[in-house]
Amino acid sequence: MKHDVITLDNQPAGSIDLDEAVFGLAVRADILHRVVRWQLAKRQAGTHKTKGISEIRGTTAKPFKQKGTGRARQGSRRATQWRGGATVFGPVVRSHAHDLPKKVRALGLKTALSAKLADNKLVVLDAAASETGKTKDLAARLAALGWNNALVIDGPELNEGFARAARNIVGVDVLPQQGANVHDILRRDTLVLTKDAVTHLQERLK
User: Fold this and answer.
1) What's the angle, vertex CA 30, arms to CA 25 and CA 33, rounded to 5?
2) Who is most buried in 33, 44, 140, 163, counting CB within 10 A?
3) pLDDT of 143-198, one tens digit each?
4) Which parts form a coiled-coil structure per UniProt (predicted)?
């Protein structure tokens, strides 16, 4: 399918062919959910932890004798029912990551790209480059285009001036094509792909 290409000054720059196998899929909310959940689980630190009975400071002596006191029998002051005691079945340091087949991950990325195109939120840019490398200049150009909440995906190598200028603009993210992922695509309103990014993504996902 044909898609218009524009410049950063909002001038037409021809058109590009988008592969139906990458940009023309039906939107699958279940696939998007699985991939985003996999991404966020892998990112989770998993450093939360509570102390078990063997890690609590305190005496190992029995608090009082077993029989004759009329009280419930107790074996340790470090047990859970005592103040300052251990936690039963508390969280431990672990990885929250889980496996997801490569085919599902690839399908998720293709579905996310297709969803943006279906919503008319996909823009193809001739090139993401900034001659000055100044945030003020780039912010003005993006504001004129109405990109207040956008993800810009370039080819394998980012333009250094563009990446530096975009770094301090709130609501604008810049990624190389190998960093394209479902979560970042969905969390931004507008998806901006350079022609170089389209070429590489289609080669990668076909």
Assistant:
1) 110
2) 163
3) 999 999 999 999 999 999 999 999 999 999 999 999 999 999 999 999 999 999 99
4) none
Q: Are 156 and 176 in contact (CB under 8 A)?
A: yes
Q: Where are the domains of the chain?
A: 2-44+99-205, 50-90
Determine the topology of domain 2-44+99-205 in CATH. Ribosomal Protein L4; Chain: A; (3.40.1370)
| Cβ proximity of 116 and 187 under 8 Å | no
In contact, 18 and 117? CB cutoff 8 Å: yes
How far apart, in whole angstroms, are the C-alpha atoms of residue 59 and residue 82? 13
SS3 assignment, position 138: helix
For the CA atoms of the chain, what is the radius of gyration? Answer: 27
pLDDT for 131 = 87
What counts of helices (H) and strands (E) characterise the chain?
Answer: 7, 6
CA 125 – CA 64 distance, rounded (Å): 78
Q: What is d(CA 97, CA 119) in angstroms, rounded to the nearest whole number?
A: 31
Q: Which two tokens stand for residue 167?
A: 């770094």
Integer angstrom CA distances of residue 74 from 11, 53, 64, 83, 87: 80, 14, 7, 14, 17
Question: Helices 102-118 and 195-205 meet at what angle, rounded to 10?
Answer: 140
- Helix 102-118 vs helix 29-43: crossing angle, to nearest 10: 120
